[in-house]
């Protein structure tokens, strides 16, 4: 189920506010020069809040989160009775599915990878192409999509009105209708609890000198250096994403009738083949990488950027050959692995009987 993931002071294109996509071009600003020492004040911007923003009509509560968790893991929501949100966004696979591209209704292979839902609560737009404006919107999208969950809405209404769910809805959303829209709100409330912000990097930023290795610290320095990795131009603080859309020159864009990404939603040239910048938090848990699943490992992804992409047509101006050596690429990969929050035991919910 598709739920459902900037060098500082970038120069924004004039169209970016109209696009709602935060297209950015690197300016190698002096503001990007952090003091790479544990606990230094210049690094505090990298710390992600514990609580993400939420809409006024869906303030989180234990009842809403518990209901959303049940719905998230309930395979009866899929038309064939065996597809839940967790089918494509599993906690066992970094909140994704481990596949290059997702499988939908009747196991048909879809065109894009399942987006990771970790920290999606901090996104300004949802999905690879930004077509959903909120977690609530994206939660119901796969139910409505015939190639994804293909939910039978009549059967869903019956399911949501069984005794267990009806009582849970009454507690979580008193006075609101028991339907797919309210179910989407509950799922979104649960998704807002999937937060990664206690990685080795976070602890290092807070002052723990032993949290990261010498190699990982070197990787961070390369990551933020505009003359080296220049990774921060798109994977910016605090969630390691600019919430923008970029064509990074993947080989799949050179094929006949390529996926146009954000351009299908906003037909402006710079958005041709552009896809949402995913967060790098917990990135080591969710291989393969990119919207087409074309890189099996983090090293392959770094090598892609080091080459300056494969297809140059409509390439983001941020993508250029980096000329990193093997040791430097290994350091950046090591740093990205320092962005993983320790995983806690996860307890599956009990589902209401029909």
UniProtKB/TrEMBL annotation:
Pfam families: CCP_MauG. Residues 1-30 form the signal peptide. SUPFAM superfamilies: Cytochrome c. Binds 2 heme groups per subunit. Its main location: periplasm. Binds 2 heme groups. One of its GO terms (cellular component) is periplasmic space. Residues 63-189, 214-340 form the Cytochrome c domain. Heme c 1 binds at residues 85, 88-89. One of its GO terms (molecular function) is electron transfer activity. This is Cytochrome c peroxidase. It comes from endosymbiont of Ridgeia piscesae.
């Amino acid at each position: 189920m598709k739920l459902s993931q900037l060098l500082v002071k970038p120069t924004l294109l004039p169209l970016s506010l109209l696009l709602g996509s935060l297209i950015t071009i690197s300016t190698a600003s002096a503001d990007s020069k952090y003091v790479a020492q544990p606990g230094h004040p210049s690094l505090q911007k990298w710390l992600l809040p514990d609580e993400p923003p939420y809409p006024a009509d869906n303030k989180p509560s234990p009842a809403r989160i518990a209901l959303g968790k049940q719905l998230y893991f309930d395979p009866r929501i899929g038309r064939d009775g065996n597809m839940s949100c967790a089918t494509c966004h599993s906690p066992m696979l970094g909140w994704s599915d481990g596949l290059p591209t997702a499988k939908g209704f009747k196991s048909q292979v879809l065109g894009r990878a399942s987006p990771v839902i970790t920290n999606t609560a901090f996104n300004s737009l949802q999905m690879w192409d930004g077509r959903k404006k909120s977690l609530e919107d994206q939660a119901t999208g796969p139910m409505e999509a015939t190639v994804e969950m293909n939910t039978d809405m009549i059967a869903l209404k019956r399911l949501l009105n069984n005794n267990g769910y009806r009582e849970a809805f009454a507690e979580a959303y008193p006075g609101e209708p028991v339907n797919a829209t309210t179910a989407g709100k509950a799922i979104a409330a649960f998704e807002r609890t999937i937060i990664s912000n206690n990685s080795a990097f976070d602890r290092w930023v807070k002052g723990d000198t032993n949290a990261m290795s010498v190699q990982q610290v070197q990787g961070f320095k390369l990551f933020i250096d505009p003359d080296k990795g220049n990774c921060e131009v798109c994977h910016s603080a605090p969630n390691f994403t600019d919430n923008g859309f970029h064509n990074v020159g993947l080989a799949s864009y050179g094929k006949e009738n390529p996926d146009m990404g954000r351009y299908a939603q906003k037909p402006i040239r710079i958005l041709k083949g552009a896809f949402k910048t995913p967060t790098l938090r917990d990135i080591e848990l969710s291989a393969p990488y990119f919207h087409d699943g074309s890189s099996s490992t983090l090293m392959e992804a770094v090598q892609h950027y080091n080459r300056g992409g494969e297809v140059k047509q409509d390439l983001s101006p941020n993508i250029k050959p980096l000329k990193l050596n093997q040791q430097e690429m290994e350091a950046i990969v090591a740093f990205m692995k320092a962005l993983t929050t320790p995983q806690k035991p996860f307890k599956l919910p009990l589902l209401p009987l029909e």
